[in-house]
Amino acid sequence: MTLRTVTLLTRMAIMAAAALLLFGTSSAQQYTIKFATVAPDGSTWMKLLREYDEAIRKESGGRVRFRTYPGGVQGKEQDVLRKITIGQLQSGGFTGVGMGEVAPAVRILDAPFLFRTRAEVDHILEKFTPEFEKAFNDGGYVLLGWAEVGFVHVFTNSEIKSPDDLRRLKLWTWEGDPLAQAAFRALNLSPIPLSLENVLSSLQTGLIDAFYTSPYAGLSLQWFTRAKFMVNVPLANAMGGVLISKKYFDTMPADLQQIVLKNGRTYLRRLTELSRQDNDAAVKEFQKRGIKILEAKESDLKIYQDAGVKARRELAGKMYSEDLMRRIETALAELRKNAK
After folding, report:
1. What secondary structure does DSSP assign to 44-68, as a single string?
2. Planar angle of CA 314, 318, 324, nearest 5 degrees
3. Which of 96, 131, 274, 294 is most deeply buried (CB count within 10 A of its CB)?
4. Where do the domains of the chain lie?
5. DSSP 155
6. Rounded Cα gap, residues 70 and 63, in angstroms
7. Is the dihedral of CA 134, 135, 141, 147 positive or negative?
8. Which pLDDT band, with edges at 50, 70 and 90, does 180 fall under?
9. How many other C-beta atoms are found inside a 10 Å radius of the C-beta of residue 123?
10. Contact 133/276 with Cβ under 8 angstroms?
11. CATH fold for the domain made of 27-339
12. How far, in Å, CA of 94 to CA of 101, rounded?
């Protein structure tokens, strides 16, 4: 070996060592999970997602991370699911509408007038999550964690004194959501179907004058600026969740899978708790801004609850099995009985 060859090899070794120090090992950031959601940037949802990202980066030594696309920049939830299917994205944060595209049975969690308290929601999730996880797996996804949106209320510009008053409203319904359609049919309503991104402009132009959402979502999306009243009867508890492509997830080594799953459970549960606090704070903010909270009479609550039963029965065997519906209703009835 000549002196020139030795010198060249030495230089190459020095350059390789420098590159290793500068860029780290070749295993760093092996997996970048491209994640999209309609949640606005700066919202509690995105703040917690970024904390989740920081946690998995740290625990994995930089081998796995999220790249986030908030605010609907990747399109509607159906668009995000399509992009995950073709590999442009790997993960997304979804409402019940998006999750229902993957596992229709999960829509039972959004069923109208099913839940009355947050404790009931937690009880059913604890009992039935393994069943829903299997449904997601069968649909080609892994559930990283639930991210509850919260109890949904009707907001309007007109005072609602009874369920009958809802019929004179130009009420929005989420376009293509059979669960919302069934709920409103049970109340003899004919809402106006629109996509999520068209709600605010439609409120501004007068195409609609009422909508339903969780308080914090209404605040974050600025829909509340077009309302004078909030009906203090939860229409439903809107579920959300973070899903990742099972095909992509299965390419990860077991240790990274566990890091992503474990932290998902932790941070998304924390997100649910913070979302509940945000919803409570949003109601107080509405009151400060002059939005009146309308309470319902006991007799009206019975009308709403009966409509919920009717809507759930209509969709049994279509979106979810009658057996699943009955088991969840039975579990709730037992919980209420024991709470008395």
Report:
1. HHHHHHHHHHHHHHHHHTTSEEEEE
2. 85
3. 96
4. 27-339
5. E
6. 23
7. negative
8. confident
9. 16
10. no
11. D-Maltodextrin-Binding Protein; domain 2 (3.40.190)
12. 10
